[in-house]
Design a protein that fits this description.
single chain; mainly beta; 4-stranded antiparallel sheet; 0% helix; globular
Length: 119
Amino acid sequence: QVHLVESGGGLVQAGGSLRLSCAASGSIFSINIMAWYRQAPGKQRELVASITRSGRTNYAGSVKGRFTISRDNAKDSVYLQMNSLKPEDTAAYYCNAEVPVRTTSINYWGQGTQVTVSS
């Protein structure tokens, strides 16, 4: 079992910055990929950014160059630095941890943190 707790959301004006944090606990040694997803009202949940244990990153095209994902394996945490925020970034942001199990994987989710960007 992996437990994820996010923090750092809030209200910010367009062009501003926020930093999201996600702390993992439980069977953290088993986590491979950690990621941030977001879901806006009426829309499907989408991948924002992901990072492997070795530090390889992947970003959605809409956030590339503005957001940076990082991971501190010693603190069992993942972060999302969000700069140049736009109103369309408004969404609930969820931390995700992927644990490989034999030929498949289990995904764990945090409770979500709201990010609201005003124009």
